[in-house]
Amino acid sequence: MVSGGIGTLPAADEAVVLVGSFITPATRQNYTPPAPHTENELDRVAPTVRDVVAVTTPVFTTIHTLQTGETLGSIAEQYNIPLDTLVWSNPSINGEVLIRGQELRIARMAGIPYTIQAGDTLDSIAARFGVNADMIAAFKPNGISVGQPLPAGHEIFIVDGTAAIPEQLLRAYGGMAGLAATGPQHAGITRSASSLLEGPDTVYAAKAKVDGGRRVQLIGQHDGWAKISVGDTTGWLPLSALDVAGDILAQVPTTNDFPPPPPMWVWPARGAFTSGFGWRWGGFHNGIDIAARAWSPIVAARAGTVMEAGWCSGYGFCVRMSHGDGIQTLYAHMIDYPTVSVGQQVPVGSVIGYMGSSYDLAGGGYSTGVHLHFEVRVNGVNVDPLIYLP
Ligand SMILES: [Zn+2]
User: Fold this and answer.
1) ∠ CA(158), CA(161), CA(167), 5° rounding?
2) Cα 287 to middle of ligand 1, angstroms
3) Residue 322's beta-bridge partner residues?
4) What is the distance in A from the centroid of ligand 1 to the CA of 373?
5) Does the pTM exceed 0.70?
6) Domains, the chain, with CATH or none
């Protein structure tokens, strides 16, 4: 039998047997109700009878707002609950940085909250948390009626239950000791989904995406950019992409710890330089040709925006990009549709399509074999790409 603060209940099947055998049809036939008491008699012999009102106190009665200087350990101690109760009560303790102002649910006793899954039974839940099944049902805030199916998706609280902290959290916070010592750090919240860049400028390539509303740790800052880490990833975001308190930002050190900016221009393909810019065969060649095997990658020669991507008159499958300063580049004779689309921002050196020999005869184009025809235009006028390529 269970001992402890909750008390004991008969098992569910016992209760059913009691009710079922207490009033049999035979007893009912022989049963004569006693004569009703008069009101005066009732007043004399019986105390005032009240309806039983179910009074339950919710498990989570307190929201604690995380302050600078506090740790998870100090908060658990303050409310006299185990650290695992605090951690399991708060899915926002998820391996990411903690932030000042973060709200934590405080349970009024030791235990583990648990959301009932389809197929769970009281016994399976009890076994999982090392407690007695009757206790789970007896704890009124759980709202469980014995004999009724458990409501999947409903959160209950396993009083005195224990559950190991997930490995992933222990790794993120440095074991149980690290977890206890973890408190709010210099951190901000992303305003919307953003790209993490390799360095503090839009010329750097993106290395990862971060969702909006994520807590990110501020490692350093440089010229209106923040070096942040989220999970295992580190990168740069403009400060405008972050919600961060001014006094916190003031404490984040300035850093020059980022790679040199990428080259502004790269060659758009590897291969043999088969034709230069200028007059040839009685005609003017308004770009350069680079030949290699079919499906050799073609990359953006400079970071920019895709203006045209697909079948281009004269050029076959092609991409045209704009790079600001009146400069455009064009990549022709691709083997198939480009891998980028109109409006896309493309970093320098990233693949935009593959080498082929498509051309549009009707549009005045021609190609004698697999190669890239590459043009650079300045304010609409074709210029020798070798002026720009490194
Ligand atoms: Zn050409």
Assistant:
1) 115
2) 5
3) 305, 328
4) 4
5) no
6) 60-184 (no CATH), 186-250 (2.30.30.40), 272-387 (2.70.70.10)
